[in-house]
Amino acid sequence: MGPSPHGGSRRGDLAFTVSRTGAGYGADTDQLLSSAEIVKGAGTRIGDLTQELLTSASTLEWTGPDAEQFRAELESQIAVDLHALGGRCEAIARGCGRDGLGHVILKSR
User: Chain-centre distance of CA 20, in angstroms?
Assistant: First the structure.
């Protein structure tokens, strides 16, 4: 196919979405669906790495008040934020798919 009105070349259909700010974005549907899978995988990996970090921190040979403060902050703030980030990536990926008519849709929430 010819060039897309949004730049680049079109291999498939063109998906269109409107952001929360009202800006519109066009994307090749195959690229959009492929990107969603990458984002989903990244979200899963963030969750896995967060769990690995927590496990490693709990087995450190480090004692004392600073060690306890570090572990507490890691568990109560950093890990919570990382899990939220991973979950947000997975939610974004879940929001991208095809509707019952085969149209690519992208929901921001």
Answer: 17
Place of tokens 């149209």: 103
φ and ψ of 17, to 5 deg: -140, 155
The pLDDT assigned to 49 comes to 97
- What does 20-31 look like in DSSP terms, one character per residue? TTS-EEEEEHHH
Q: Backbone phi, then psi, for 4, in 5-degree steps?
A: -80, 145
| Residue 104 Cα distances to 14, 60, 86, angstroms | 9, 47, 23
pLDDT, mean of each 10-residue run, the chain (109 residues): 39 56 68 88 96 95 95 96 95 79 64
- Cβ neighbors of 12 (< 8 A, separation 6 or more) are 28, 29, 30
Are the CB atoms for 29 and 1 separated by under 8 Å? Answer: no
Q: Tokens standing for 76?
A: 């109560």
